[in-house]
Amino acid sequence: MTEDEMAMDIEQIHQLNSILRPFIKRPSSGDAVTFEQYRILHELVHEKTSTSELSRRLHVGQSMISIQISRLLKGGYIQDETLPTDRRYHVFQITPQGEAIHEHVSLVLAHELPQLMAKLATYVKPAQG
User: 12, 28, 57, 100 - which has most CB atoms within 10 Å?
Assistant: First the structure.
């Protein structure tokens, strides 16, 4: 890779980051949840899950999951449950309020993601075959 090619790739990464960062970091259309919190809710819609399992599934550190879990608990979007056999082990489940937010954000994403992906496609090089 030449220095010019590397500089072009670095600029593309910067441009992609500029497009994605506001989408990922902002609360979703007036909701009190971020995209990362939505991802957790999306996992919990399907089943009760522990912090370590969420970390594994979402490919992020447990500390980030713990921070987001704390915020979701405070917002009433999820609830904490300890196992009767081991009080140290916590699993989280989505609440009806969390399900409503998940459904709303899913609808917003269904509208916004195609536009975002189209914008991203202008920056991504087609694969060389």
Answer: 28
Q: Using CA atoms, how far apart are residues 103 and 114, in angstroms rounded to an integer?
A: 18
Distance of CA 50 to the CA centre of its chain: 16
How many whole angstroms separate alpha carbon 102 and alpha carbon 89? Answer: 25
Are 101 and 118 in contact, with CB atoms under 8 Å apart?
Answer: no
Q: Which amino acid is at 66?
A: S
pLDDT (tens digit, 9 = 90+) per residue, 91-110?
A: 999 999 999 989 988 887 88
Cβ count near 19 (within 10 Å): 13
Beta strands in 9-108 (DSSP E): 78-83, 86-94
55-90 pLDDT, tens digit per residue, is: 999 999 999 999 999 999 999 999 999 888 888 889
C-alpha count within 13 angstroms, C-beta hemisphere, residue 38? 22
Residue 115 confidence (pLDDT):
81
Cβ contact 34:41 at 8 Å:
no
